[in-house]
């Protein structure tokens, strides 16, 4: 699943390579990806891309005609000029751009990529309900405290709840909780002030360091760069790099990993 550091890197790449290019046309191979049936993708034909902005795990292509909001979901992604990732995914939409090509893909068993043609990106419900974004330089301890204080919900789920904090998914929530030395099963309401401060530091450091590390990586290499950087997520059965214990798998709706020693606190 793309998360905010990778989507931020993609936004920066497209800001450099796609802005000022004209969209020649939009070819859609899977009609279910279009969420605004009253606003067809043909509205963007001939439009010039004027900017790129990230909203959580979503991308906004600004043009002089309308906005194209790209919601990547669980398995959507993008590639530039035909560069294929090692696990090449089916192409859902193609946008020829004055001699370049932006392709939108989906590698899932069910379609998760969503495309919306709108005048205001915040008219897309998933964007309108987003919580504060830890990659925003203005994000502070008070934002984190409001997100978790009094919440009788497990921390793993809270971190992934987009209305609570924007941009965090399954992988980075594992990394954050490991760095914070907090149990994924602990409740937000049970955290004391020191634990909330520790969680704030882990959230901001983990995501901002990841965003900096992904900067400049081409889109088709971002997924493998993310996987290679994981210390806990996807490392079930391996040795914890901090304490040496064995990292465990927790199989639920989505598999996640944790260290039973580092994350033994409530």
From TrEMBL:
Q: Does this entry carry the keyword DNA-binding? A: yes
SUPFAM superfamilies (UniProt xref): Glucocorticoid receptor-like (DNA-binding domain) (SSF57716), N-terminal domain of MutM-like DNA repair proteins (SSF81624), S13-like H2TH domain (SSF46946)
Q: Which InterPro entries does this UniProt record tie to the protein?
A: FPG_cat, FPG_N, H2TH_FPG, Ribosomal_uS13-like_H2TH
Q: Does the keyword Lyase apply?
A: yes
Among SMART domains, the record links this protein to: Fapy_DNA_glyco (SM00898), H2TH (SM01232)
At the top level, the lineage of the source is Bacteria
**Domain Formamidopyrimidine-DNA glycosylase catalytic: where?**
2-111
Instruction: Name the family the entry cites.
Output: Belongs to the FPG family.
Protein name listed in UniProt? Fpg/Nei family DNA glycosylase
Q: Which organism is it from?
A: Microbacterium saccharophilum
User: Source taxonomy lineage?
Assistant: Bacteria, Bacillati, Actinomycetota, Actinomycetes, Micrococcales
């Amino acid at each position: 699943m793309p998360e905010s550091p990778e989507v931020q890197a993609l936004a920066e790449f497209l800001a450099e390579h796609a802005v000022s290019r004209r969209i020649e046309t939009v070819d859609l191979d899977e009609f279910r990806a279009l969420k605004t049936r009253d606003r067809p993708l043909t509205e963007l034909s001939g439009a010039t891309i004027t900017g790129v902005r990230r909203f959580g795990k979503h991308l906004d292509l600004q043009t002089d005609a309308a906005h194209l909001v790209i919601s990547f979901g669980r398995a959507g992604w993008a590639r530039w000029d035909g560069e294929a990732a090692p696990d090449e995914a089916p192409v859902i939409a193609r946008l020829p751009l004055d001699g370049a090509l932006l392709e939108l893909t989906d590698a899932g068993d069910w379609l998760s990529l969503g495309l919306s043609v709108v005048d205001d990106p915040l008219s897309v419900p998933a964007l309108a309900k987003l919580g504060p974004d830890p990659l925003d330089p203005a994000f502070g301890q008070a934002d984190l405290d409001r997100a978790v204080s009094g919440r009788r919900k497990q921390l793993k789920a809270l971190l992934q709840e987009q209305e609570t904090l924007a941009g965090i998914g399954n992988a980075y929530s594992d990394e954050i909780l490991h760095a914070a030395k907090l149990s994924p099963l602990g409740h937000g309401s049970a955290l004391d002030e020191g634990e909330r401060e520790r969680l704030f530091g882990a959230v901001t450091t983990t995501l901002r360091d990841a965003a900096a590390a992904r900067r400049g990586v081409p889109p088709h290499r971002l997924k493998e760069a993310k996987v290679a950087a994981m210390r806990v997520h996807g490392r079930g059965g391996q040795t914890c790099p901090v304490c040496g214990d064995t990292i465990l798998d927790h199989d639920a709706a989505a598999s996640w990993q944790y260290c039973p020693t580092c994350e033994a606190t409530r």
